[in-house]
């Protein structure tokens, strides 16, 4: 019986010793952690408040040389930034497409000059103005604007201007068509000859003859 008691006391003593050592280790780790936090707090106080996430960034950059971090920064700077979008041209077109039907002649004149000669819908608008606008000045503006476009797209519209009731519009169309590289020259020459022979306005007939000379 005494032997058993001795063994039990020995085991209890060993357990007490183990618990004592474990408590000492916990105390040491707690003290170390507290000391580390105190040092960080003191460093922040001395250097000013660190930005949020600065410690994470510092940890992420550990192990990278200054040169590597510099290269990374340069790479980010070289990433293309989206260019500012300039809506002014589109706004002008939208306004022109509205004003082309305005009752104000000045607004229609400006709208004609702003329409896009490369846009099929805008060309249709110009054709409609050329054939129906009550102002000969606006119709002549259409002729001059069409002369700036690609001949294959605008020459057919300019030929329609040869039938305009206003002599100035017809003369303007004759002058511009005679300088353009028109694919269907036979049809154009035939139209010029008819105008030179039959138009009631002598000035128009002379302009047609001059246009024919330009095309020889």
TrEMBL record:
Superkingdom of this protein's organism: Bacteria
PROSITE patterns: PROKAR_LIPOPROTEIN
Record field: transmembrane: none
Pfam families (alphabetical): HEAT_2
Chain coiled-coil ranges: none
Keyword hit for Signal: yes
Protein's recorded name: HEAT repeat domain-containing protein
Signal peptide (from-to): 1-22
Region (Disordered): 30-73
Record key words, sorted: Signal
InterPro entries: ARM-like (IPR011989), ARM-type_fold (IPR016024)
Keyword Signal applies: yes
């Amino acid at each position: 019986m005494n032997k058993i008691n001795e063994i039990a006391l020995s085991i209890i003593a060993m357990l007490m010793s183990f618990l004592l050592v474990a408590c000492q280790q916990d105390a040491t780790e707690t003290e170390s952690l507290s000391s580390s936090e105190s040092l960080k707090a003191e460093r922040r106080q001395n250097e000013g408040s660190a930005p949020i996430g600065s410690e994470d960034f510092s940890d992420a950059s550990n192990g990278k040389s200054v040169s590597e971090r510099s290269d990374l920064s340069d790479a980010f700077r070289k990433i293309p930034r989206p260019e500012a979008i300039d809506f002014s041209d589109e706004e002008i077109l939208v306004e022109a497409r509205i004003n082309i039907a305005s009752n104000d002649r000045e607004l229609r004149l400006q709208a004609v000059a702003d329409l896009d000669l490369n846009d099929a819908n805008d060309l249709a608008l110009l054709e409609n103005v050329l054939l129906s606008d009550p102002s000969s000045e606006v119709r002549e503006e259409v002729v001059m604007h069409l002369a700036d476009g690609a001949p294959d797209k605008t020459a057919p519209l300019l030929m329609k201007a040869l039938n305009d009731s206003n002599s100035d519009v017809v003369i303007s169309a004759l002058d511009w068509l005679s300088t353009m590289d028109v694919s269907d020259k036979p049809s154009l020459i035939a139209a010029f000859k008819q105008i030179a022979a039959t138009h009631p306005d002598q000035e128009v007939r002379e302009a047609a003859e001059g246009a024919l000379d330009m095309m020889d």
